[in-house]
Task: structure prediction
Amino acid sequence: MADSFNFELVSPERLLLSAQVTEVVIPATEGEMTVMAYHAPTMTTVKPGVVTVKTADGKTERYAVFGGFADILPSGCTLLAESAVHVDELDRTILENRIDAARAELEGAVDEKKTRIEQFIAELTKLGEVVIPA
Amino acid sequence: MPSLKDLKNRIASVKATQKITKAMKMVAAAKLRRAQEAAEAARPYSQRMAAVLANIAQAVGADDSAPRLMTGTGRDDTHLLIVCTAERGLCGGFNSQIARFARDHVRKLLAQGKTVKIICVGKKGFDILRREFASLIIDRIDLREVKKIGFENADRIGHKVIELFEKGEFDVCTLFYSEFKSVISQIPTAQQLVPATAGDVAVETSGASAIYEYEPDAAAILSDLIPRNISVQIFRALLENVAGEMGAKMSAMDNATRNAGEMINKLTLNYNRQRQAQITKELIEIISGAEAL
Result:
């Protein structure tokens, strides 16, 4: 049994989860990373994707996050998400609304910003494929 | 001298008003509770954000790589004021308090020869400030349609601010809102957003902050973080405002209900006195009529 640590998933609107967990998979910008207890202190930005949490009592929960960043310490991990929902509560329309909003923003955007938004849309689309089987 | 019928009508109308104010007070109380809960729920995020920001700012230090949103443009000529007020009135001095506070600030800046730009969030503040500074208001944001303020609302304002900053439209940005102290006391507050104030960032730098690994790197995270921090600050201000508005509305409506009660008492007393006078008058008429026979 792996050691557990405290994990908190916070969105600006509320604290979604605060629990003892053994393992968290975070979709960091530079690739997915698994955080376990006694992880080296790390700070990373997070891209849209699925956060998989394995709680101390063996359950697995999945949350969809839309960007944010994570603060990882040996004693615990905090994920500050721009916006987050439990995978069960996520449906296609929410996702599509977001993609549409991003597309609207794409018009008129230039250079670096354009690439960034395009990447964001691609990530969202992928998230949709992963979470909601067509 | 109003007649008995007039008095009766008057009492009925005051009673109806009292019922309305009482209902409004109750609605405000319920909304206040919800607003307080929302503010409470948003607190962990902004706290963590402040801690993380302090941590990173320390790591990046006075490096030149620090983003301009944090260091500022180095000038102090053009000020952008974001004035957050409520969308509706009937909440005592809540809106005028914020507006007055902002107005004093604008006057001071203008006297110093600075350029001032104003963004109004909320209808009431716009209505008040328009009288004096119509030419300075560059934008107004309407949240009337919004039932419950979400992060997206604040984020949109935040984006707007950053966009303006990138265009070099202003040097210093200050946010005006009302801090929710208690149900009866809301304090108008000014908070500097850009450049991020040192006092704001350097909170509780725990000495034990270990050496972090940054992914991608500290500067990149910081430049991602600061815009987000602006949105979070605005979000917090909006939530505090809603709670304050509801608190002010509740006490204003409570006062109104009490005043209506007093008025009803006074009118009822008057009514009874007149009724009695009329009875006496009628009696005298009958008696004197009988005596004359």
Summary: Chain B touches chain A through 31 residues (CB under 8 Å). The longest helix of chain B spans residues 218-292.
